[in-house]
Amino acid sequence: MLLPVNVTFGIVLAVLLATAACVAAVAHLGPGRAREMVVAGLRAAVQLGAVSLVIGWAVRSVPLLFAFLLVMYAVAVRTAGRRVTPNGTWWLTALPIGAGVVPVVAVLLLTGLVPVKGIALIPVTGILIGGGLTATVLAGRRALDELATRHGEVEAGMAIGLSDRDARLEVARDAAADALLPGLDQTRTVGLVTLPGAFVGMLLGGASPLQAGAVQLFVLVALMAVQAVAVAVVLELVSRGRLHRDPAVPSPRGARPGT
């Protein structure tokens, strides 16, 4: 067993979580960030404990399996939406995450590379949903921040004849594309800097190093595909003014959302 679940395990976890929160507080890494870390750590403990029990129940039935995956997707959408915007357009984050994850999972199932079994489908789909969530949040936040900061450039683009979409796109594209960097760096340095979870998990499960490497390569390439699609869809939603941070009620002057 890699990590024995005992009292020492709990104490070390508590110390690490307290350290993270204290550093965030002392270094002033954002208002309320230390509290968020503590809450996130406690939630992770409760959620992983619950998931450990639920997975054993969900893998026994295909309908329960897909219901569990839908819950994972819904939580990811809500989490991403809250990070990107506080208004009612948050639910549109369902589109980039779904557009990235669903086709990839469908290909995996149709080709038989991943069987319709919870023990295989849940972790793979979870990794892909997590990657889609991260890319959606980073791309959405960066694009909207850039539009707010460079609002004058958007107006200038419109003044020279660009459409609203094209003017926003010119300003937001590079910022949104930065969301791909974590995935690219992870893929470039795999095996040299880190040994990701899928590789280590396969080795611990008794697979050969070659099998573990193949699975990890597959996961990394699939993640890049998911994240590329998610970023492209987010950028389109932002550039069209669908996903924005303006109040849901139009301003008296009739300003368009996202401008």
TrEMBL record:
Quick one: a GO cellular component term? plasma membrane
The way this protein sits in the membrane is described as: Multi-pass membrane protein
Could you tell me where this protein is found in the cell?
Membrane
List the InterPro entries hit by this protein, alphabetically.
UPF0014_fam
Alphabetical UniProt keywords: Membrane, Transmembrane, Transmembrane helix
Q: Which residues form the signal peptide?
A: none
Q: Which residues cross the membrane?
A: 6-26, 88-113, 119-140, 190-208, 214-235
The source's superkingdom equals: Bacteria
* UniProt keyword Transport present: no
Tell me its family.
Answer: Belongs to the UPF0014 family.
- What is the designated name of this protein? ABC transporter permease
- Provenance organism: Streptomyces pacificus
